[in-house]
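Q: Please design a sequence for this.
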């Protein structure tokens, strides 16, 4: 959780972020979805625009780009 919070502070993320360390929300949204981390990006209309499962080095840059593009819409 410290790394997650640090990422959002360092990158001045200007939107709400739901963190689900227990996996309760993910299990309701994705039956059988137990890969951590699992990210769901939702637009201003509440529509899911992308999903990301797991993590590999460099993912944070592509996620940041995707979020900034979505923010500018």
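A: Design:
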């Amino acid at each position: 959780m410290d790394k997650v919070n640090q990422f959002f502070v360092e990158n001045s993320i200007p939107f709400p972020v739901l963190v689900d360390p227990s996996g309760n929300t993910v299990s309701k949204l994705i039956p059988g979805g137990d890969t951590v981390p699992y990210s769901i990006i939702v637009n201003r209309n509440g529509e899911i625009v992308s999903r990301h499962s797991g993590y590999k080095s460099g993912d944070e840059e592509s996620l940041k780009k995707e979020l900034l593009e979505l923010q500018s819409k």
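Q: Thanks. Anything notable?
A: Helices lie at 2-10, 24-29, 59-71. The beta strands are 38-42, 48-53.
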